[in-house]
Amino acid sequence: MTYDVVFVVASALAIVSALGVVLSSNPFHSALSLIGNLVALAAMYLLLQSDFLAAAQVIVYAGAVMIMFLFVIAYLGGRANEPVRSRPWWQTGAALIAAIAVVAEIGFAVEQQAFGDGAHVSDLFGAPQAIAGSFLGRYVLAFEATSVLLLIAAVGGVTLAARRPAPREGGAVGAFEVERPEPTPSLQAQAVDAETRFDVVRSGSAPENGDGD
Amino acid sequence: MHVGVAWFLGVSAVLFGIGLYGVFTRRSPIILLLSVEIMLNSSNLALISFGRYWGDPAGQVFALVVMAVAASEVVVGLGLVVAMARRRADLDVDSLTGLRN
User: Fold this and answer.
1) ipTM score here?
2) Which among A86, A115, A117, A152 is the top mutation candidate for probing chain B, defined by the most B β-carbons within 10 Å of its own β-carbon?
3) Is CATH 1.10.287.3510 what the domain over B5-86 is classified as, yes or no?
4) Contacts of A21 in chain B (CB under 8 A)
């Protein structure tokens, strides 16, 4: 009974916070909603007796990854907001249809299956030693590949966010650069320009010819 | 009501659909990354519930690998966003057509 209640609460929280991520117009609120989603999912992992993964979910996701998101959103400030332009109505409709179709397909496929009660597992099912026995035993290749992937991602992140971009030849335009028109000078700059265009003769400051005296 | 593996799979499917909708409709690259995170987490939930159903720790191992992949994806994605912001590009995935033109 308690199991069912926890499941209902956790799944409702997960779905509502996921909707909050997708529908919120403020990226900061979206990131905070995603933290709620991740914590609810960690509770569901606990229901599935995956204790270690629940802890890893909270530490890695809700901790490290989301902090990185919040830092970047804070760094970007207002530029992280959604660009305000109207999207054609059929795009929203098509996205809705595609999402509902995926959910309906999976729901139909799951509903067709007669799932039993599941295997009986020991209390150590989700313990670190059980996962380590599998991860460092049968799936050790995946473990090594994961370490290489993380190394590459770290190097890639440093390279992408490096302050000095690589010099380009001949004024080539990078993929991320948008051609912008030359900015029109402000009124003040125009006034200053017009003033300095005339020769303003100031007494005492005009250069003397060298043959005086 | 008996909460079996099918209920977890249903929640996972709904979360995946929500993430898919977000990827299709939002334009800010940061929200796109957040939506992709939702989708990856829903797949994690499916993997773990199947692992629990079969009593096999392989599901948890796969979920750990997915977590590592998601962390790498976030690093590269946020690096791209920061690089875009540095170069004064629009943070709008619809206007990033530099590779197409």
Assistant:
1) 0.91
2) A115
3) yes
4) 18, 22, 31, 34-35, 38
